[in-house]
Specification:
alpha+beta, two-stranded antiparallel sheet
Length: 331
């Protein structure tokens, strides 16, 4: 009975429902026109390991060091993609200096200049001369704005994906400025690559640096002993006493020992060099974003239909609730 009454009530107020639906549909189209156009910069790349693990092994090592490792490789791939959105890489990328619209500056200053959000911020009196500088440490305000932008980009402006059947990774960046989208995408990949390599081969690089430093110090010591040996030979070339000759024998023995040690260090150094090269991962970029970029606009038809449906639902609820309330108050 109540259902039939509600149905008749809606039919009686159909004109109200139609007008409300049309009004909200028109409002939705208006909002779609007012929304900014985004330029989408898309790149694809493959993460390869030169060592025995192959494939995404190097990236898995990074993930495990950051506390997100473990589990099957295909599960780790999703976690690895999260590295692209990490604060460390985002901040390094934003502080890269590039030229946009003929202006050389760090990316975050470009974003504050060209984006609607940045323009609204810098129009405020306390932020009119606000900027980031490479050589200066961040203030609390600098950190706060960087944190807000990191959240915004991760939520709506950066997308990363991969297929389960492929190791090909895709990275999308969309902003309101075409050149900024392209430059940010390229800089993000570059910083990811540097961090990826440095973290993966940190242990091998440390061993190589130790051996290289040891080889240099041994070479300097051998050259010093050889100079002492030559000087002693010159001073005692006609000497018949055994004292100076004993010193020369000792020097010769030290030089021989040092040369043997130096030879072993050089051998280990070359092995460490080969191991470093073998374990250094490769982040191969397949496709880079090129101008003109794809534009992403709100789908006006979808917005209109959604607005009309929302208007119909809301107006129906209003009609039913008002009818119910009228009956309650009359009783």
């Amino acid at each position: 009975m109540a259902l039939r009454a509600a149905k008749h009530r809606l039919i009686d107020r159909k004109l109200t429902l139609i007008i409300s639906s049309l009004l909200l549909g028109a409002l939705a189209i208006g909002l779609a026109f007012l929304m900014p156009v985004y330029y989408v910069a898309e790149s694809s790349f493959m993460a390869e390991e030169n060592g025995k693990n192959g494939g995404l092994g190097g990236m898995v090592n990074i993930a495990s060091q950051l506390g997100i490792g473990g589990g099957p490789a295909k599960d780790n791939t999703e976690k690895i993609l999260d590295l692209i959105k990490s604060r460390r890489i985002f901040e390094s990328t934003m502080m890269d200096s590039v030229k946009i619209d003929g202006i050389e500056d760090v990316l975050i200053n470009h974003y504050l200049r060209v984006s609607n959000w940045g323009q609204k911020l810098t129009q405020q009196e306390e932020f009119q001369n606000f900027k980031y500088e490479i050589q200066k440490p961040f203030s609390r305000t600098h950190d706060s704005i960087m944190q807000v932008l990191h959240f915004q980009f991760n939520k709506t402006l950066i997308e990363s994906e991969t297929k389960k059947t492929s190791t090909l990774l895709k990275l999308k960046v969309k902003t309101e400025h075409e050149a900024f989208s392209q430059k940010f995408n390229q800089a993000l990949l570059q910083n990811l690559n540097l961090y990826y390599i440095a973290t993966t081969v940190a242990k091998q690089k440390n061993m190589f640096d130790i051996l290289e430093g040891r080889a240099d110090s041994l070479r300097i010591e051998i050259e010093s002993k050889e100079y002492m040996m030559a000087k002693a030979n010159d001073e005692n070339i006609h000497a018949f006493k055994m004292g100076p000759r004993i010193d020369m024998v000792r020097l010769e023995r030290e030089i021989t020992t040092l040369n043997l040690v130096y030879g072993e260090v050089i051998k280990n150094l070359e092995m460490a060099r080969a191991n470093l090269l073998n374990e250094t991962p490769v982040l191969s970029v397949i496709d880079e974003p090129s101008l003109p970029l794809e534009k992403e606009k709100p789908a006006k038809k979808i917005w209109m239909i959604g607005g009309m449906l929302a208007g119909l639902v809301l107006s129906s609820l209003w009609v039913l609730i008002s009818h119910w309330w009228k009956r309650v108050t009359e009783e």
